[in-house]
Design a protein that fits this description.
heterodimer; A: mainly beta; 4-stranded antiparallel beta sheet; globular; B: mainly alpha; 16 helices
């Protein structure tokens, strides 16, 4: 098995001065993790000070390609989908990786299918689902044993994976079929394919579980799905040249933030009125792909693939506060839930 | 990421008509664009065959044969305008395929094909349109999107011809871009730089006419992004979106329109034009992610039936089947597509 091959993965935590530093346990709850797909590493940011507090080396830049990120519900473990840039090469760089947040120690690397791109963890922390773009399926993994439980067919080129807050449903977007596949986590079977906008990328459930949101990169839309019926209830047009990808929902489920890769902007959607109420553009980084909100809902962070940085936005004022240098090809960002286990 | 692009180009915007090259504002429809796109793709393909010969590689007949299928994409309309030219071009393409089989005379036939394809373009595309900046920019965008697509297809299936088509598209896009370059640079330096960067990315992926080892080939993500960047930048420089992407349901609507045109043409005795319309319906508005793949997800049986019917009608038209038989098949495929239109409805 490829994943068994010994991997030259190093773990380095760097302080602001570039000196190796142990992570501060008090600061663990405030961390944001940014995957850098071309840099082969993960940037760790303290979301209170907005300073870089560490860097996790996944593998050689340009070879190891970390993309999708997910945090365990207790915030103790970050999971990273890793692949390489050569789809047809047999490679050791094709696995998901579990990292202990407090120590920065790599817990392990495990298989989850071919070309893993994005992943999600169920709310009970027991299972992970990761999309396998090349194979048109999603893999369900038991995180206690790291064994594959099921491989579930999806549409063509699956990418975004989201789990409902009650853990019952997993939604998987498929770029070429323009669909969202509904997976019943009780049976690990696909129960329905929902047609959404053209080339759907990311799917995110609102924390209250009443809605799921799907971005469509080429369609330039945000689809709203009612998870109780698995039906699209509304589609919001963001613009054909916006190229929306990443989505984050505020903790109170009232606002949805969608990053536009082409417009270099963040659309702020009022989830009660279902309309765009603002567009943050000034001082934004280039080509934002990923977006996350702090647990208190006060700050929004975008991972910007072309400017290799993270933009920090004040959610109340809807304006950029600062930018933080990340690694090459910032792709995804996850913010750890605050106040729980170290 | 494999990306098959959903493309239909609408009538040129009148918001900012391009007056480049001294031409008056031009209007066009999808027909003109699919002719230009497919003639240019054919030229790119022929250039690729010459390209691989130049680097000492053999041209197998299966690499040349897709030219016959591409001819169907515009052959019927060309025949209506210039039957002699259509016959000449068809014969030359057949000779080219035969030359590839024999391993002799390919350069001569290829050069003649390029000459005739140029003439075909002149016959199909009226002069003001041929020099219209927005029209040319749209063709560049389509060729680059197709090239990115072909790269992904090659990576997935390993067919050298797919890589070759992408390589050829890039050569043709470059020619069009050279003529656009001054106007884009004048209008938007940012867009100009972005397009140049995108083309440089394409050059990296298509550095040689011969495909590299697939094991050494990077994923096409970057290429797809570069194509999208170029399309957006061209639109920004020339006054608005050039290419409109349709939803699967909208594609079905356009496909139905083409099939109705095919029925009329076939009834009127114009088999070549009917085949051309079925080509447009199937290749441009049904295959892969346009309709087939989403339909397969939501209604697999319907997709299977519709795909089989479309292939059958195309095959029967090619052989000149009787009108009632083709009429019957078309009635079935149209009913299936109307069903698909309902099944592909989204809110």
């Amino acid at each position: 098995m490829r994943w068994r091959v010994c991997l030259l993965v190093a773990l380095v935590f760097l302080g602001g001065s570039g000196v190796r530093a142990a992570p501060n346990p008090q600061a663990v709850g405030r961390r944001a993790f940014v995957s850098n797909e071309f840099g082969g590493d993960i940037t760790i940011i303290d979301t209170q000070s907005d300073q870089i507090v560490g860097r996790l080396v996944v593998g050689p830049p340009g070879i190891a390609r970390p993309r999708g990120l997910a945090l365990s519900p207790d915030g103790r473990t970050v999971y990273v989908a890793v692949t390489d840039p050569w789809p047809k090469r047999k490679s050791e760089w094709e696995f998901y990786m579990a990292v202990d947040v407090a120590s920065g120690r790599i817990i392990g690397k495990y298989p989850c299918g071919s070309d893993p791109e994005r992943l999600t963890i169920t709310p009970d922390g027991r299972r992970m689902y990761c999309s396998n773009e090349d194979e048109a399926n999603v893999t369900a993994v038991d995180l206690r044993t790291n064994r594959i439980l099921a491989t579930i067919p999806t549409g063509i080129e699956p990418e975004g994976v989201g789990v409902s807050p009650d853990g019952r449903w997993v939604y998987v977007t498929s770029e070429t079929s323009h669909t969202v596949t509904v997976v019943d986590t009780r049976t690990n079977e696909a129960t329905k394919h929902i047609l959404v906008g053209t080339r759907p990328r990311v799917v995110v459930f609102a924390p209250d579980g009443k809605r799921a949101y799907v971005s469509a990169e080429i369609g330039g839309t945000l689809s709203i799905i009612d998870p109780s019926r698995h039906e699209v209830t509304k589609t919001i047009t963001l613009g054909a040249d916006a190229k929306p990808v990443g989505i984050a929902v505020s903790p109170d489920s009232k606002r949805v933030y969608v990053v536009g890769g082409r417009c270099n902007c963040v659309f702020v959607v009022d989830a009660q009125a279902d309309r765009v109420i603002a567009q943050v553009k000034e001082r934004m980084g280039r080509r934002p792909w990923g977006v996350a909100v702090t647990p208190d809902g006060r700050k929004i962070y975008t991972a910007n693939g072309r400017s290799d940085d993270v933009t920090v936005i004040d959610a109340a004022r809807m304006s950029v506060i600062r930018s933080i240098k990340a690694g090459r090809g910032a792709h995804s960002i996850q913010i750890r839930p605050q106040g729980d286990g170290n | 990421m494999k990306c098959v692009w959903l493309i239909v180009v609408v009538t040129a915007s009148l918001v900012m008509p391009a007056r480049s090259f001294g031409a008056p504002p031009a209007r066009w429809g999808e027909d003109e664009l699919r002719w230009a796109r497919n003639v240019e793709k054919s030229k790119g393909k022929v250039q690729w065959l010459l390209g691989i010969l130049q680097v000492g590689s053999a041209v197998r007949s299966e690499l040349a044969r897709p030219l016959m299928s591409l001819f169907e994409a515009f052959g019927g309309s060309l025949r209506r305008r210039d039957p002699a030219l259509a016959d000449d071009l068809l014969l030359t393409l057949e000779n080219l395929v035969r030359s590839a089989e024999k391993g002799d005379g390919l350069v001569r036939e290829a050069q003649r094909a390029l000459l005739l394809l140029d003439r075909a373009l002149e016959r199909l595309i009226p002069p003001p349109l041929r020099t219209d900046a927005r029209f040319r920019a749209t063709v560049v965008g389509l060729l680059l999107l197709d090239a990115a697509d072909e790269y992904e297809e090659w990576l997935k299936e390993g067919e050298a011809g797919d890589y070759g088509e992408g390589w050829g598209n890039l050569q043709r896009a470059r020619v069009y871009w050279q003529a656009l370059l001054p106007i884009v640079r004048t209008r938007s330096r940012k867009a100009f730089d972005e397009i140049q960067t995108a083309l440089a990315t394409f050059e990296r992926f298509f550095g040689s006419s011969l495909p590299p080892s697939r094991e050494q080939a990077p994923s096409g993500d970057e290429l797809g992004e570069a194509a999208e960047d170029a399309v957006s930048a061209l639109g920004e420089a020339l006054g608005g979106s050039l290419i409109q992407r349709l939803s699967p349901q909208q594609h079905v609507g356009v496909a139905i329109g083409y099939l109705e045109r095919a029925r009329s043409a076939y009834r009127a005795g114009d088999r070549h034009l009917a085949v051309e319309y079925v080509f447009a319906a199937y290749v441009d508005h049904y295959a892969e992610d346009r309709v087939s793949e989403p339909l397969k997800a939501v209604a697999p049986e319907l997709e299977k039936r519709t795909t089989a019917l479309l292939r059958q009608v195309r095959a029967r038209m090619r052989t000149g089947a009787p009108v009632p038989e083709v009429d019957g098949l078309l009635a079935q495929v149209l009913a299936a597509l109307r069903d698909a239109q309902t099944r592909l409805r989204t809110r």
